[in-house]
Design goal:
alpha/beta; Elongation Factor Tu (Ef-tu), domain 3; Rossmann fold; 2 domains; seven-stranded antiparallel sheet; five-stranded parallel sheet; 5 helices; globular
């Protein structure tokens, strides 16, 4: 008698994309909290832009003047971000920034004049969820909110799971729209280092807290979150390594750090 290997309800696939560099201009700025801002870029170059994966990375460039070539654009200060929303035929792209330090991206998002030029490179590849997870588990700090918003948009009305968002306090909470069966939990770190509240919450979860069925999990915050995330997802919950993502979106003390793809 032979036994078959159980088939998961979903898988994570990879899609390669053609790398393209585009220029646009700052068209609008909306403050979501005192330290979190959404901006809109607009321009004909953004027509055709697409970002298939919720955890996609693009490189956003901040030149002083409009570049005349891709080489000039790529020489400008830049950071990696996750696209929030766009319209392929509309020529616009929205991004969100956590304004918590003096980094070039945060300062540009907070203070650049309307009409300021920006560049966009990528994405060069996407991680795609193929199929339907039985349950969802998303957790991250402010920098992971755009990706978690996008994952939440892919959930159907019957989805179940949990989303954890670490922020400073109630004034800085970042709500995420999710189906009724997905609990959104705001974690307040107060004056403790970024990632502290999320780490404590992850470490408090045990085997009995594991959702039923095939779970897709995504955890992203400061680099130190990777160890407690893996301890929960791989060790206590026994999730297969190809059904979850645990990554550092940034690294304390390293402004040039870029999250792995």
């Amino acid at each position: 008698m032979t036994t078959s290997t159980p088939v998961s309800s979903f898988r994570l696939g990879r899609q390669r994309l053609d790398l393209r560099f585009r220029t646009a201009r700052l068209a609008a700025r909306t403050w979501i909290t005192p330290t979190y801002v959404r901006i809109r870029l607009e321009g004909a170059d953004l027509i055709g832009f697409d970002s298939p994966g919720s955890d996609d990375h693009i490189r956003v460039f901040f030149p002083d003047v409009a570049p005349t070539s891709a080489e000039e654009l790529r020489a400008a200060p830049n950071r990696e971000l996750t696209p929030l929303a766009w319209e392929p035929d509309g020529g616009w792209l929205e991004l969100e920034f956590a304004v918590h330090d003096g980094g070039v991206a945060a300062q540009w998002a907070a203070h650049a004049p309307i009409g300021a030029v920006a560049g966009v490179g990528g994405p060069r590849g996407s991680m795609m969820i193929e199929g339907r997870p039985d349950a969802w588990f998303l957790a991250g700090d402010e920098t992971a909110v755009p990706a978690m918003r996008r994952f939440a948009r892919t959930m159907d009305a019957a989805a179940v799971g949990r989303i954890m968002v670490e922020v400073v306090d109630a004034e800085h909470e970042l709500p995420i729209d999710a189906p009724p069966g997905v609990v959104v939990e705001q974690l307040h770190r107060g004056t403790t280092p970024a990632g502290s509240a999320l780490t404590e919450r992850l470490e408090a979860l045990g085997t009995d807290d594991r959702p039923l069925g095939d779970v897709f999990a995504f955890v992203a915050a400061e680099q130190a979150i990777v160890r407690p995330a893996r301890a929960l997802l791989q060790e206590r919950w026994a999730l297969p390594s190809d059904t979850f993502v645990a990554k550092g979106y940034w690294k304390r003390g390293e402004s040039e750090y870029h999250a792995p793809h």
